[in-house]
Specification:
The complex is a heterodimer of chains A (266) and B (414). With 266 residues, chain A is α/β, with parallel strands linked by helices. Chain A has 11 helices and 9 strands. Chain B has 2 domains: 125 residues, 3-Layer(aba) Sandwich (Rossmann fold), CATH 3.40.50; 228 residues, Rossmann fold. Chain B contains 16 helices and 14 strands. In chain B, a hairpin with a 3-residue loop joins strand 1 and strand 2. The radius of gyration of chain B is 20 Å and the shape is globular. The N and C termini of chain B lie far apart (46 Å). Classes of the chains: A alpha/beta (266), B alpha/beta (414).
Chain lengths: 266, 414
């Protein structure tokens, strides 16, 4: 039995390329516009990460913070975010959606309610930045019961012992953080080293789809063609900010970037 | 939920770092798991290591200057006319506040683990000032994250940090106060944890930081216990310990040694910042019944909206201007060991005026909150009750605000 996230990876693999995952913040710069952006970039991306904005993010760099603060300032609420996903899922080019955010938003909504609402809206997976293993054991089981992928994160500081336990407890997809950095940092580690770590993970857990994120941009993405998937976030958020500052349409500009990213790995 | 006797409160958390099963924990990005675990192993070993304790005590005594004074405020006692009012003058400590204990311990730990850089957050600027002092003393490079709004209102401490060679990094995100400074500091640590040690400036953050800070500031109550025995020959029958609570480091340290006493004998009163009396905003999550949420890696009572966005706080005192509160205090509240209340900006200012009028003591705006409630309650208490206020900071840093609010004479007379 395959879920939509695994199918997306399978399809990319058949096309002999990594899956392209994008990250945009829900409600940036408005509810309507963020939905339009999702619809536009889903022509080129395989899986869409939708950031749930939080105002005390401990792992996000400047670009994503700017997007998140903009969305919050414009009044985005948790229920609006669910609605954006539901509307997006009705569109013809709909792709799997993964929520990425911080645990307090889930905690306040109530874990069970949150998952119910995810299921109803069509959210396929969750990345909870500040709910690491083993703290996430119970919640990730709940996700599985609701057919929602709980995506475990791995980082260069993760010990081998942890790596084994985490991958064992992970679902179909895992996320490797390329370097010690907040999101949007410059790639300060050589692609070779990142790929060595990536291969180490794949060796331990060959069947799981492993994506690499942090520091992936138009400039660096082609170094990682032989992977399961790649996440681009900050560059997209930056482009939204740039477009707004120049009074241009972010929807067009962002979809141009995502189309370029796709070409670079195809 | 129960407080255990005979076990230090900092060690009463469970395997995952939760006090009472629900406060604290480690809500951190995967990248920080390893450095936090390393710090846990190091601290758990060293806190029972005789040589390390000896080293700590040497610096506490010769450099920080222990013990700080324990004095009776005779004039204030007479003026109020009720309980005896005493003060533990923790602002005597090198640098002028209790933050020096935690800063010193973190630098000792960083030194031992071979780290060359130490980073920290600051609100009132004391945590930053003390960390910059300790870093200089121990030969570490130092970066301090501080909200842009706080940089403006606490200039004397900013100058001190720079003089000590620290980089002061202004934080412009969010409300530009302590909450954003802590976030930014944690973000920097995420990106640099292989070379850099982090000092969280209060008993907040992931569990290990709560524990290290509580362990460090407990020096205050260790001293006080000895001073009480010297003064009264015993721990008096009725004591009330008043302390302001922002993150909660000075109050926890002021109370820790007395934890196992019955609260009828030694009562703890924590005073939060109620904010301007006309404003709905405050920094008093325990007093005003805020819900449990996650902030900076720990579950705690925290000011937030129904979605879980952290709310902006408002207080005249930068040191108390924090939407959350230490998990230790959540635990002490729910086990009913401590009582919490709030004082408004105006009440704190009034208390500052009263104290400085009657005594040769000038508490900063933070302890002025505690003085306000203590003065009010002492009136109604008997003469054999010993009211003690922790004067944990000196008002020098508040010169600008005091001059603006009360006029020049309150600054000049200092």
């Amino acid at each position: 039995m395959s879920n939509p996230i695994s199918l997306a990876f399978k399809k990319a693999k058949e096309e002999k390329r990594p899956a392209l995952l994008t990250y945009t913040v829900a409600g940036d710069s408005s509810k309507k516009q963020s939905l339009e952006i999702l619809k536009a970039i889903s022509n080129y991306a395989d899986i869409l990460e939708v950031g749930v904005p939080h105002n005390t993010p401990v792992a996000d760099g400047g670009q994503i913070q700017t997007s998140a603060y903009r969305a919050i300032k414009n009044g985005i609420k948790m229920n609006d975010i669910f609605k954006i996903v539901r509307d997006f899922k009705k569109s013809k080019n709909s792709k799997p959606v993964i929520f990425m955010g911080y645990y307090n938003m889930i905690f306040q909504y109530g874990e069970n309610n949150f998952l119910k609402k995810c299921k109803k809206s069509g959210v396929n997976g969750l990345i909870v930045v500040d709910l690491p293993w083993p703290e996430n054991k119970i919640f990730s089981k709940k996700c599985k019961k609701n057919s929602i992928n709980f995506i475990q994160l791995l980082s260069p500081t993760t010990s081998n012992k942890r790596l084994k336990s985490i991958t064992k407890d992970s679902h179909d997809m895992i996320y490797y953080i390329s370097m010690l950095s907040t999101t949007g940092g410059k790639l300060k580690v050589s692609p070779k080293k990142i790929l060595a770590n990536y291969n180490k993970i794949k060796k331990i857990s060959p069947k799981k789809n492993c994506v690499i994120g942090f520091g992936i941009t138009e400039k660096t993405i082609s170094n990682f063609k032989n992977t399961d998937g790649l996440v681009v976030g900050s560059q997209i958020c930056k482009e939204i900010t740039r477009s707004l500052n120049n009074r241009q349409n972010p929807v067009i500009n962002v979809s141009k970037i995502v189309s370029k990213l796709r070409k670079k790995i195809s | 939920m129960k407080l255990k006797k005979g076990i230090p409160v900092i060690d009463q958390g469970d395997r995952l770092g939760f006090w009472g099963g629900k406060f604290g924990g480690n809500f951190v990005p995967e990248t920080l798991k390893k450095p936090i675990e390393d710090l846990e192993i190091q601290f758990n070993k060293l806190k029972n290591d005789k040589n390390f304790i000896k080293e700590r005590d040497k610096y506490f005594k010769n450099w920080i200057g222990t013990p700080t004074r324990f004095i009776k405020l005779n004039n204030l006692t007479k003026h109020v006319g009720g309980a005896q009012i005493w003060s533990k003058v923790v602002s005597d400590a090198n640098g002028g506040a209790h933050k020096i204990y935690n800063a010193t311990v973190h630098c000792l730990l960083a030194k031992r683990s071979g780290k060359k850089v130490i980073i920290g957050d600051t609100g009132a600027g004391y945590a930053g000032k003390m960390l910059s002092m300790a870093a200089k003393k121990f030969g570490l490079k130092c970066k301090i994250f501080m909200g842009a709004k706080d940089i403006k209102r606490q200039q004397p401490n900013v100058k001190a940090m720079k003089k000590n060679g620290a980089d002061v990094i202004p934080v412009y995100s969010g409300s530009q106060t302590l909450v954003d400074a802590v976030s930014e500091c944690m973000r920097f640590w995420v990106a640099n944890c292989d070379t850099t040690a982090m000092c969280v400036g209060s008993t907040v953050g992931p569990a290990i930081f709560v524990r290290i800070c509580g362990w460090s500031t407990s020096q205050i109550s260790r001293e006080l216990k000895v001073q009480l025995l010297n003064e009264f020959g015993e721990v008096p029958k009725k004591i009330k310990l008043y302390n302001c609570v922002g993150g909660g480091s000075s109050s926890f340290g002021f109370w820790n040694e007395f934890m196992d006493y019955d609260k009828k004998q030694v009562e703890f009163i924590g005073v939060e910042a109620g904010g301007p009396s006309k404003s709905k905003r405050h920094a008093a999550p325990l007093t005003y019944g805020s819900k449990i949420g996650i902030l900076h890696g720990a579950a705690q009572y925290v000011n937030q909206n129904s979605d879980g966005q952290i709310e902006e706080t408002e207080s005249i005192s930068a040191g108390l201007d924090y939407p959350g509160i230490s998990p230790l205090h959540c635990f002490l509240k729910d086990t009913k060991r401590a009582r919490y209340t709030a004082a408004s900006d105006e009440e704190a200012l009034k208390a500052y005026q009263i104290v400085t009028k009657y005594e040769n003591l000038r508490p900063s705006l933070e302890p002025s909150h505690a003085f306000s409630v203590a003065i009010k309650e002492a009136k109604k208490l008997s003469k054999d009750t010993v009211v003690i206020i922790n004067s944990c900071g000196d008002a020098y840093k508040d010169r600008g605000i005091l001059e603006k609010k009360l006029g020049k004479k309150y600054v000049k007379s200092n």
